Amino acid sequence: LCRWMITACKSKSVKHMLYCEEMDTIPMVSSLLSSLANYSNLPQGSKEHEEAENNEGSRKKPVQAPRMGTLMGVYLPCLQNILGVILFLRMTWMVGIGGVIEAFIIVLMCCSTTMLTAISMSAIATNGVVPAGGSYYMISRSLGPEFGGAVGICFYLGTTFAGAMYILGCIEILLVYIVPQAAVFKMEGLEGAEAEAAMLNNMRVYGTLVLSFMAIVVFVGVKYVNKLALLFLACVICSILAVYAGVIKTAFEPPVFPVCVLGNRTLVWKGFDVCAKVIERENGTVTTKLWRLFCDSEFLNATCDSYFANNNITEIQGIPGVMSGILRENLFGNYMDKGAFIEKLGLPSVDEPDSMPTNTNRYVLADITSFFTMLVGIYFPSVTGIMAGSNRSGDLQDAQKSIPIGTILAITTTSIIYMSSVLLFGSCIEGTVLRDKFGEAVRGNLVIGTLAWPSPWVIVIGSFFSTCGAGLQSLTGAPRLLQAIARDGIVPFLRVFGHGKANGEPTWALLLTACICEIGILIASLDNVAPILSMFFLMCYMFVNLACAVQTLLRTPNWRPRFKFYHWTLSFLGMSLCLSLMFICSWYYAIIAMAIAGCIYKYIEFRGAEKEWGDGIRGLSLSAARFALMRLEEGPPHTKNWRPQILVLVSMDSELNVEQPRLLSLTNQLKAGKGLTIVGTALEGTYLENHPQAQQAEQSLRKLMEAEKVKGFCQVVISSNMRDATSHLVQAGGLGGLQHNTVLACWPRNWKQAEDHQSWRNFIELVRETTAASKALLVPKNISAFPSNGERFTEGHIDVWWIVHDGGMLMLLPFLLRQHKVWRKCKMRIFTVAQMDDNSIQMKKDLTTFLYHLRIDAAVEVVEMHDSDISAYTYEKTLMMEQRSQILKQINLTKTEREREVQPLLMIKQVTLPSRASNAEAETPGTAVQMTWTEAKCDGEQLMVDGFVFRNQSNLRRMHTALRLNEVIIKKSQEARLVLLNMPGPPKNRSGDENYMEFMEVLTEGLNRVLLVRGGGREVITIYS
Q1: How far apart are CA 623 and CA 618, in angstroms?
Q2: C-beta of residue 453 within 8 angstroms of C-beta of residue 242
Q3: Do 95 and 434 touch, CB atoms closer than 8 A?
Q4: Taking phi first (over 0 means left), then psi (-120 to 50 degrees means alpha), and beta for anything else, what does residue 1020 get?
Q5: Between the CA of residue 886 and those of 1, 845, 897, what are the distances in Å?
Q6: Which residues lie in Basic and acidic residues bias regions (predicted)?
C-alpha cells in the first residue's frame, strides 16, 4: 500500500500532493478504510481445527465469514452451559435442606451475581473486537497482563474442575440410577463409612475411565463434540419440559410414589414390597418382608428391633401434588448433621433413651453435614457458563449485538427456571423425599425424575447425556483457554502449552487439563468439588466487574461500548456480591484461591513478559499518579517525609556506553530512602540529527539500570553544548512536585589536562546551579574505587567530617548507606572541628545528645584545630596553583593578552622554593617564610613574601585551611571505608574557578573513597516523631 502511494506521488497521479512525503509512514484515509472493511477475525478455535482436519493434505480453503446469530451463537450455548448437573442432582435436595425461602434467596443471590456480571461483560465485549480467549482476553486487555494472567489461569482451573464435576455427576447417575449392578466395589450389606468409601472408590474408577475416553474423543477431533452439542442441548430442554409437564399433571393426577415411614424415620424402600409390619390373609395375620428386615424370624413372636417394635409404620405420598398445600411444610430449612435420620415432621416417634440405633442401613440418612453456606457453594456452579457466548465471539455475525442480548436473555431464562423450580419442588414434593439426596425412599429413583412426565427415565437419560456433553465441552474449552494464555507469552513456564498438532489443536494443554481434571475425579465427591470451582468462577466474575468499573470511572477515550445499559455502581455491586459469595461458600477455599491468583500475579510481574495492552490498570496508575502529583504541588514535603530524590548525571563514551557504571551502584546503595531516581545524560549536537544516538543512549542507560537494580527513569538531553544540556537536566528533571532534590555527579578526574579544560568549568557551573536551585549535591571522588552491589564490607568505618551544618545531609546519608547489605556491617563515626574558643568537651556532649535524639548510632570525636603559622609548603602549593591558573587562562586569550599575562609568570619561575621535605626546617621560628595570617599583614590584592608574588591573599588562606584539614582527616580516617565531607562552595568571583578545583584536590588528597556533600539549604532530618 505504501509502495503504491509513493509510486503514485512520483507519477503525479495523486491529488493530495501536499502529503506525498509522509505517505511512507502515514496511509491515506481511503486506503485505511479499505483495509478495515476487508478485515476478518476468526480465532483459532474449534471451528478452524475442524476445517483443518477435513482439509489435511490439501491446500487450506479460505475461512468463511462468521455466520452465527444471537440464537445459535450465544443464547443456546449459554443455556446449555448454565443448565446442568446441579439442577438434576442437587436442586431438590437443596430445597429440602434449606427450605423454599432460603433456597430462593440462594438462587436470587447467585442469579443476581451472574446478571450483574453479564452487564459488565456486555459493556467490555462491545467495546471493540474480542478475539480468541473470550473472558481471558477481556480481563487481560482491561486490567493488564498481571491480572489477566492470574484470573485467566483461575478461570482455566475453574473450567477444568467443572469438567471433573460433570463427569462425577455422570458417574453418579450411571451407578445410582441406571445400572447400580455395575459397581466395582459392592455396597450390599455395608454401612456407614464402609459404604461411603466403596461409593467413592467406584466414582474414582469409573470417573478415570470416562475422563480418559472423553480426552481421547477431544484429541481425535472436536468436530465430534460439535456435532453432538445439539443432541446434548435437546436432552437438557426435553428434561426441563418433562419436569414442567409433570408439575402440571400433579394438579390433576399426582404420580404414585409411596414413602414408608417407621415412627418418624424414613425407610430405604429396598428389600420389601409392602409398607406394613403384618398383613391380613385368609388364614390369618402374616408378617411382611419389612418385618423380616428388623426381626430375627418371620414369626409374630420373634425378637425385633426395639424401635421397630415401639413405633408404627406409616405410608405417605411422596408427590402429593401442587394443590396439596405441602408448600407450608417446606418453607423453612431443616439442616442436619452427617448420619442423622431423615424424619417426617408431625409423626409420633417412641425412642428408648440411652439406646444405640440399630439397623441404620435400613433408614435414609444424611450423608453430609449441611448448613447454609455449604448450599451456596454447591449451588453456584449451576449458574456458571455465562461466558459461552463471549468465548465464541469470533464465530458471530455481529458479536457486539449478539453477546449482550444472547447472554442476558439466557441468564433471564435460566433464572426463571431455577426460581420457579424452587417454588414448584417445594409445592409438589414431600419434605422427606426432598431431603433424600439419592432417592432411596422412592425405590432408588432420581427425585426430580419422580416429578417428570411421562416417565422418570426421561430425566435420568436426559441428565446423563447432558452431563456427558457438559464434560466434553469443558475438556474442549479449557485447553484452548490455556493455549490462548500460553501464546500471549505472559507466563514463561506455560509457553510449551501454546504448541499443539499441525492444525493448532492444543495437545499439550489437553494433557495438562486431563491431569488436573483427574485431581477432581480423585476427590470423588460432587459436593466437595463444586465449591472449588465456585471459587475460581467467582474470582473471574469479580474481575470482570472490576474491569468494567475501572474503565467506566477512568473515562478513557477508548472506552466507548455499544452496550449502554451499564453503570459503575452495578459493576461494584456485582464485584461485592462475588467477593461475598466467595467467603460465604468457603472462607478457606476463598483464601487459597486468592493466594493462587496472588502468586501468579507476582510471578507475572517479576518474570513475565512486559505487555502494553492499554489496560485499565495502567490508566488507573496514570490517574493515581496525576492525583498524587497534584497533591504534591500543594507545598514542599515536611522534613519527616524528606528523602533523596536523586538526579544521577552520567557521561557516555564514543560508543554510547556509560563511563562510570559504579555511579549507579552507589545510587542503588543510597536508595534505602525509596525516593525518585532519574538517570540523565547529555549529548552534544542537534535533536534532529542525533535522535537515533539519543535512543541508543537511553537503551544503554536502561540496560545498566536493570543490571544495577536501580528502579527509576532515564532521560537523555541533546543540546548544542554539554554545559547547556546538563543545565537543562538540572532545571527540567522530574514533573510537578515529584522533582529531584539531590544531584549526584562524578568528580572530573582529568580536569588538569589541557585538552579537558572544559570539564572542570562545567563542573563548577553545576555546583553553582544546584546551589541556586536549592538542591543538594553529592560528588563521589575516585568513583572506580567504590564497591559494587555484590561486594560486602565485613568491618570498617564510615567517617563523617561535619565542618559546617548542611541541614543534616551528612547524618542522613550514612544511615541510608548502612541499610544496604554492602555497608551494613560498617560502623559510623562523626568528627567535628573545634576552634580556639570552643569548649571541646561540651561540644562532644551536645553532639552525642543530638545523635541520640536523631536515633542514629555513631561514635563522636571532636578534633581541635588551632591557628598555626603558614608553612613553606603552603606557599609552594599556592604559588604552583596560581601558575597553573595563569597557564590555563592562556588557552582562550589573544596573542597580545597572552604575552602580557605570561610576564609575571616568567619572573616567578626564577624563584626557588623550599620543598615539602624541608617543612620542619622552614616552620622553625626565625625562618624567612614564617608568617601568621593576620588582617594587618594581608591587606591587598597581591602579597609579596621574600620575593614570592601572590596574586590573591585569599588563595593562600584557603590553601592553608585545606592542607590543615587534610592532615587531620588523613590522621583519623585514612583507613575508613568511606569519608563523607562538607563540600565548600565555589568562589562568587568566577576569576578564581580554576583555584577551586585545586583546593578540593588538596582537601581530599590521600583518601581512597570520598563523598563530597553539599546541602540544599533545608533541614532533611529531625529529632521529632
Answers
A1: 9
A2: yes
A3: yes
A4: alpha
A5: 67, 47, 11
A6: 46-59
Distances from the Cα of 872 to the Cαs of 690, 914, 915, 946, in angstroms?
A: 53, 7, 8, 11
Separation CA 726–CA 262 (nearest Å): 97
State how far the Cα of 300 lies from the Cα of 292, in Å rounded to an integer.
10
Which regions in the chain score pLDDT beneath 70?
1-67, 130-135, 189, 222, 391-395, 502-504, 608-617, 619-620, 634-635, 640-641, 672-674, 753-757, 836, 866-956, 991-992, 994, 1023-1025
List the grid coordinates of 464.
Answer: 446423563
Pairing of strands 258-262, 313-317: antiparallel
pTM of the shown model: 0.71
Asked if residue 171 lies in contact with residue 468, where contact means CB atoms within 8 angstroms, the answer is: no
Q: At what angle do helices 872-889 and 895-909 cross, to 10 degrees?
A: 160
Provide the grid cell at 64: 468463511
First to last CA, the chain: 67
Note whether 154 and 597 are within 8 A (CB): yes
Residue 831 one-letter amino acid: F
The Cα–Cα gap between 122 and 406 comes to: 10
Cα angle value 539/543/544 (rounded, 5°) = 115
Torsion sign, CA atoms 980, 982, 988, 989: negative
H or E segment and range at residue 422: helix 399-428
Residues 995, 982: Cα–Cα separation, whole Å: 18
Contact criterion met (CB below 8 Å) for 427 and 326: yes
What integer pLDDT is reported at residue 435 of this predicted model?
93
3-class DSSP assignment, residue 833: strand
Coil vs helix vs strand at 130 = coil
Mapped onto helix, strand or coil, the DSSP state of residue 448 is helix
- Dump pLDDT digits (tens) for 543-583: 889 888 888 888 877 788 888 889 999 999 999 999 999 99
Residues 426, 428, 434, 438: is their CA dihedral positive or negative? Answer: negative
How far apart CA 651 and CA 903 sit, in angstroms, is: 38
Return d(Cα 764, Cα 38) in angstroms, integer: 63
Cis amide leading into 43 (omega within 30): no
| The pairing of beta strand 859-864 with beta strand 827-834 | parallel
DSSP annotation of 638 reads P
CA distance linking residue 5 with residue 306, whole number of Å: 100
Instruction: List the one residue out of 164, 643, 121, 650 whose CA is nearest residue 403.
Output: 121
C-alpha cell at 42: 476468526
682 neighbors 646 (Cβ within 8 angstroms): no
For the range 942-951, what are the long-range contacts, defined as Cβ-Cβ under 8 Å and sequence gap of 24 or more? 945/875, 947/911, 948/875, 948/879, 948/908, 948/911, 948/913, 949/904, 949/907, 949/908, 950/875, 950/878, 950/879, 950/882, 951/882
Give one DSSP letter per residue of 486-543, joined into a string.
Answer: HHHTSSGGGGGGG--STT---HHHHHHHHHHHHHHHHH--HHHHHHHHHHHHHHHHHH
Burial (CB count within 10 angstroms: exposed 0-12, middle 13-18, buried 19+), residue 5: buried
Query: In this predicted structure, what is the pLDDT of residue 165?
Result: 92
Q: What is the rounded distance in angstroms from the CA atom of residue 464 to the CA atom of residue 146? A: 39
- Unique residue bearing C-alpha cell 432460603: 102
**Distances in whole angstroms, Cα of residue 955 to Cα of each of 633, 748, 902, 959:** 44, 21, 20, 6
Report how far residue 797's alpha carbon sits from residue 828's, in angstroms, rounded to the nearest whole number.
6
Q: What is the pLDDT of residue 118?
A: 93
Q: How far is CA 5 from the centre of its chain?
A: 45
Distance CA 271, CA 293 (A): 8
